[in-house]
Design a protein that fits this description.
The protein has 169 residues and is mostly helical. Among the domains are: 2-31, no CATH class; 78-116; 121-148. It is built from eight helices and no strands. The chain has helices at residues 2-10, 12-20, 24-28, 58-66, 72-75, 87-114, 122-139, 159-162. The longest helix is centred in the middle third of the chain and has 28 residues, at 87-114. It is a single-pass membrane protein. InterPro entries: NADH_UbQ_OxRdtase_ESSS_su. Keywords: Electron transport, Membrane, Mitochondrion, Mitochondrion inner membrane, Respiratory chain, Transit peptide, Transmembrane, Transmembrane helix, Transport. Belongs to the complex I NDUFB11 subunit family.
Length: 169
């Protein structure tokens, strides 16, 4: 904003154009200084490069002998790890295993988990609990019986048998 005000202050003649014309073009273009920077440096065409052939080392000569009959596709082959010796079988096994893991494992596995019937019978136990509460209300019984199990069926130790043992409840 400060730059805009400075440039307006410097150009008194452009100020009248701005006041009379309200369009965006007439506001901005008189304030901008039109410059075109062109590089006129001298082109150097006399630079050249000379490639001198290097003599191959013994190790490099042995490697070129070894891989002389190898085609480019075999040379750059990286195994997927399923069948390192056979390129086609390796490719096939990789794609089949990935298809099985993604398509069958994730898609069908998610479908089965989503629509699996009543895991650990949770829905059944809730329904049975509500039916039992309704039965107890109709018969006038307490909702939760204080004697959940019959006392005759359980045997507790006597006070002499317990002795000085600390009981934590």
């Amino acid at each position: 904003m400060a730059t805009l005000l400075r440039s307006v202050g410097r150009q008194g003649r452009a100020l009248q154009t701005i006041v009379n014309n309200k369009s965006f073009r007439s506001l901005i273009f008189p304030l901008l200084k039109h410059k075109a920077s062109i590089s006129t440096s001298e082109k150097k065409k006399d630079v050249g490069a000379v490639v001198q052939p290097m003599e191959k080392s013994e190790e490099l000569k042995k490697l070129t002998e070894k891989f002389k009959d190898t085609s480019d596709t075999e040379e750059n082959y990286v195994s997927y790890g399923y069948e390192p010796g056979n390129r086609d079988k390796d490719w096939f096994l990789y794609h089949m295993i990935m298809f099985a893991c993604i398509s069958l494992g994730v898609c069908w596995g998610g479908f089965i988990l989503a629509y699996m019937p009543d895991y650990k019978l949770r829905d059944w136990s809730h329904r049975e609990a509500f039916l039992e509460l309704e039965r107890r209300e109709k018969e006038g019984l307490p909702l939760v019986d204080p004697d959940y199990t019959k006392i005759e069926l359980s045997s507790l130790p006597s006070d002499e048998e317990i002795g000085e043992t600390e009981i934590v409840i």
